[in-house]
Structures are given as structure tokens and as C-alpha cells.
Amino acid sequence: MSIEAQEHCRKLDVVTVKGSSIPMPIYTYDTFQKQVFPQLRTPKFSSLNLDEVLDKQAEEYDVSHWIQDQDLIQLRRLSTSEFRKTYRQGLEHYLNGKWEDARENLLKADTMMIGSDTGGDGPSRALLNYMQSRNWKCSEDWNGYRSLTKK
């Protein structure tokens, strides 16, 4: 994945998966799901079918699409710089074992998304639920990641 694409992904957590002891970060690409895009069609007077048009666009991919493509911009419109900063601070506190600070930032990030008609921020809520299940107390042996026990 290009650096430009990576810059638009959000780190969710650091975990070990069942059967592995190697911590790995997990990421998402934030998109606003409740929107309608026009139906894809071939351009007028084109001799190409839709698959061929899409293949041609993929061949012409350039990293500038991440900041110029109106569909990509529209998809991530709720992921504002303020939201990303607030979430990133919450995640950093969580990973560093400062769960009270993490709680404050993640609650704020979740509230920002509630106000945008999305019902809240799933990743913030997942971390909040995890910390709550531990009574908001980071364990003494916390190493900045958690183990996932189910596949």
C-alpha cells in the first residue's frame, strides 16, 4: 500500500491473534456508509464496456487520487482532522497504559461521530468496552497490546 494510502488509514489497536504471540497493529479506512453514489456507467460514445473502463482507470492510478478523487473525499468526509487527532490521542494513551486519559479522548471521539448521524464511532467504542471490561484499570503487565482469543 502506498504511503499516501496509508496516511488515510486509522490504527485501531495492537493485538495478538489466536495462535500467535507477535503483536501487530490493525487498521481501517474510515468511510461514511449512509450515502448514495451515482450508478457507474460507461462514458458516452465509448467503445469500451464498464469493466474495461474500470480496468483502464486502475492502470492509470496515481497517488494523487487520495486527495483529488471526489468519491474518496466524500467517503471520508466525517473523518475530520479534529476527530483523527482526538482518536489518535486516545489510542496512544490506551496503548501506553494511561487508560483514564484514553477514556476521555475516546469518549470525545465517539461523541463527535454521534453528532454526525452515524450512531457513534465503532473503534472508539470497542476500546472503551475493552477497558470497561477491565474496570478501567490497566494491568501491571500491560505491554501495549491485547490478545484476541477468538478467530
What features would you describe in this structure?
- This protein has a domain at 3-30 and 75-147.
- It contains 7 helices and 3 strands, in the order αββααααααβ.
- It has helices at 3-6, 50-59, 65-68, 70-75, 81-95, 99-114, 122-133; strands at 9-16, 24-29, 146-147.
- A 3-stranded mixed sheet has the order 2-1-3.
- The longest helix is centred in the C-terminal third of the chain and has 16 residues, at 99-114.
- It is elongated and about 65 Å long.
- The two termini are 25 Å apart.
- The model has no long low-confidence stretch (mean pLDDT 86).
Biggest sheet details = 3 strands, mixed
Strand percentage lies at 5-15%
Task: Give the low-confidence spans.
Answer: none
- Oligomeric state of the chains in view: single chain
Topology as a string of helices (H) and strands (E) = HEEHHHHHHE
> Based on DSSP secondary structure assignment, what is the total number of beta strands?
3
What structural class results from the helix and strand content? mainly alpha
N/C terminus separation = 25 Å
* Range of helix content: 40-55%
Our count of helices gives 7
Shape: elongated
Helix and strand topology:
Layout: H1 3-6, E1 9-16, E2 24-29, H2 50-59, H3 65-68, H4 70-75, H5 81-95, H6 99-114, H7 122-133, E3 146-147
Parallel strand pairs: 1-3
Antiparallel strand pairs: 1-2
Helix pairs in contact: 5-6, 6-7
